[in-house]
Design a protein that fits this description.
Helix content: 55-70%
Oligomer: single chain
CATH class of the largest domain: Alpha Beta
CATH topology of the largest domain: Bacterial polysaccharide co-polymerase-like
Distance between the termini: 45 Å
Strand content: 5-15%
Number of helices: 11
Number of strands: 8
CATH architecture of the largest domain: 2-Layer Sandwich
Radius of gyration: 36 Å
Order of helices and strands: HHHEHHHHEEEEHEEHHEH
């Protein structure tokens, strides 16, 4: 009986003091912002020292980065009287085509969108890189000498005198970059955008050398016009051959009339392709040799370095404070 009463008193005593202990624990766990500020203020010299180290390191890092220049060309889609082959006549001759039993199809080919996608394609890049031999300037360049206007190659990668690739890489890569590897590097430097409001197209290339950047933009514009011209010429010639064979096989006057008009349209396509150098894009603002660097933003790098140093040093002080507070 006595033991039972004693246990009951102990339980009552435990219940009575338990809230106080809980409240005390809560008070110990509360974070006093004033105390945290005092911790940061007492460690201000540590923060200043670490921030200064990061600032100096970011300055050296920013100065070690070479300048990157960007050249851009503003292009307008070239207007054309021909509507893109057989589909171009669907509006003008749709009724006659139905009478003659010929299906012209519908819709106008968006040559601008097609040209942009070809510019981005692997096949176009492979031919472009091989034609203009841009691999050394794409993969092996490390800087540009402004005074002599010469590109500086990384001679651990490429020897410009002998035009030999000597870089050491792990398989499946080879000393000479593959087109897949080169395309990845090129995509990081190349940009093409079409303004949805006015249809204008902006092509840009970044490089260590502003001369090289301009040259590559010029080559890109020339080559895409040549590729689109060659595609349309080949298509028009094949279409003319097909239409002429159909003319020879039919005796229906209406159908022959339609086919002759289609031949005429394909002849217009050939004429436009022969007389126009700027076949799919007209140059509005040609690429220029940039006098101002595009990147890096060295001031921004230094500011970011200082912020990182300040944040990391503050976190260090707070972690040290909480470790000493709760051993």
């Amino acid at each position: 009986m006595t033991d039972t009463k004693s246990n009951t008193q102990e339980k009552v005593q435990y219940v009575a003091i338990s809230p106080d202990m809980f409240q005390a624990q809560n008070n110990d766990d509360e974070i006093d912002l004033r105390e945290l500020w005092n911790v940061i203020w007492r460690g201000k010299w540590i923060i200043i020292a670490i921030t200064a180290i990061f600032a100096v390191a970011s300055v050296f890092y920013a100065l070690s980065l070479p300048n990157i220049y960007k050249s851009e060309a503003l292009l307008a889609p070239a207007d054309s009287d021909q509507q893109g082959g057989l589909s171009g006549l669907s509006g003008q001759l749709g009724g006659l085509a139905s009478l003659a039993g010929v299906n012209l199809g519908g819709g106008k080919t968006d040559k601008t969108a097609l040209a942009i996608e070809i510019l981005k394609s692997r096949e176009f890049f492979a031919k472009f890189a091989e034609k203009h031999d841009i691999l050394p300037g794409l993969v092996a360049v490390k800087d540009w000498d402004m005074s002599s206007n010469t590109v500086i190659y990384d001679e651990d990668v490429y020897l410009p005198q002998s035009k030999e690739w000597i870089r050491e890489v792990q398989p499946p890569k080879k000393a000479k970059p593959s087109m897949q590897e080169a395309k990845k590097e090129f995509d990081a430097l190349f940009s093409v955008e079409q303004n949805p409001d006015n249809g204008m197209v902006l092509i840009g290339v970044e490089h260590y050398s502003p001369e090289v950047a301009k040259q590559w933009v010029d080559w890109l514009v020339q080559d895409i016009n040549s590729v689109m011209k060659a595609r349309d010429k080949a298509e028009a010639k094949n279409s003319i051959q097909y239409l002429q064979s159909q003319i020879a096989q039919t005796n229906i006057v209406e159908q022959k009339t339609l086919l002759y008009q289609l031949v005429e349209e394909q002849a217009k396509t050939l004429m436009f392709a022969e007389v126009r150098d700027e076949y799919v894009f007209k140059t509005i603002d040609s690429a220029q040799v940039s006098e101002l660097k595009f990147m890096p933003n060295r001031l921004l790098i230094v500011i970011f370095g200082c912020l990182v140093g300040g944040v990391l040093s503050t976190i260090f002080l707070l972690i040290r404070y909480f470790l000493h507070r709760n051993p």
